[in-house]
Amino acid sequence: MSALPVSYVAAADARSRLAGLATPPGALGLLGETAVWLSAAQGVCPPRPVPNVHVAVFAGDHGVAAYGVTPFPSAVTGLMVRAFVDGTAGVAVLARQHGAGLRVVDVSVDADLDGVPAEISASKVMRGSGAIHLVDAMSHEQTDAALALGAQVADEAIDAGADLLIGGDMGIGNTTPAAALIGASLGVSSEQVTGRGTGVDDEGLRVKQRVVANALRRAGMRVKDPHDRLTALGGADFAAHAGYLMQAARRGVPVLLDGVISVACALIAEEIQPGSVAWFAAGHRSPEPAQSLALDRLGLSPLLDLGMRLGEGSGAVAAVPLVRSAVTLLTEVALLSDVLEP
């Protein structure tokens, strides 16, 4: 399958309407561009409101967490899944504030999540992805299963009426495979893509850079193929996230991307399924250097730049009011021609 084409007719109509508003040229900045993007995705100008926002958080553990790349133990992943369920995690609070639906999916948490709703772990692909500097993150069969799971999650949200999707992440150590995936996707060094994640010190950053460099070296030329790259360097949660993004583009539903994990998956989605990026907008800029490099490659400008590095989909959810403002502005601001009429 392939991504649906967005409507370039609707985009042209939106640009024409934007240029005709009773505002100085370019005065709405990225809000105006967001309204044009949404018109193209919806195939109508002005764009429709987006009341039904759905967030899916893909949770998974990563073997690299045991090798000094993060100050937190992997057990935190499972604890945070419980916080999503309880409504006390950051993204849960923001989703509640902005009226977004929230679902957490245990793709590869290395724990039995006793006491949480059974459906959260019902389609679990594996218990923890491999330490990517030593072994592949998963098998090709597990990659395929996770891609299919992500597509299923997108289908269920869309069938329930979602008109804007957001993918979130939860997994201790997950900025390390994100850096490796983006480094391999862009052909840049570990030093260029590796950031501090949840807050490693200088020595921790050097360790993390070495792990990413070793992972890239171990994967070798297999990184040329996006499916092999995901298998070698990603994780089951990454594959599910990528499958979610690709299915949204196949179904014609726009997506607001989050931080470095979300954008790493967007690179994979666009490479496996060209044209997907037309359905994506960037919710925010993360301090992780790899995210900025990936956004540049995708040609996306983030709506927010607040220094947020929580993950979970939180930065994208924080940008939802801006998407809604973009719709309202293009819909309700007067046209200059109407203002000038005697």
From TrEMBL:
Its EC number is 2.4.2.21. CDD domains: DMB-PRT_CobT. Pfam families: DBI_PRT. The keyword Glycosyltransferase applies. It catalyses: 5,6-dimethylbenzimidazole + nicotinate beta-D-ribonucleotide = alpha-ribazole 5'-phosphate + nicotinate + H(+). Keywords: Cobalamin biosynthesis, Glycosyltransferase, Transferase. One of its GO terms (biological process) is cobalamin biosynthetic process. GO terms for molecular function: nicotinate-nucleotide-dimethylbenzimidazole phosphoribosyltransferase activity. It comes from the Bacteria. The active site is at residue 312. Pathway: Nucleoside biosynthesis; alpha-ribazole biosynthesis; alpha-ribazole from 5,6-dimethylbenzimidazole: step 1/2. HAMAP family: CobT. Belongs to the CobT family. Catalyzes the synthesis of alpha-ribazole-5'-phosphate from nicotinate mononucleotide (NAMN) and 5,6-dimethylbenzimidazole (DMB). This is Nicotinate-nucleotide--dimethylbenzimidazole phosphoribosyltransferase. The lineage of its organism: Bacteria, Bacillati, Actinomycetota, Actinomycetes, Micrococcales.
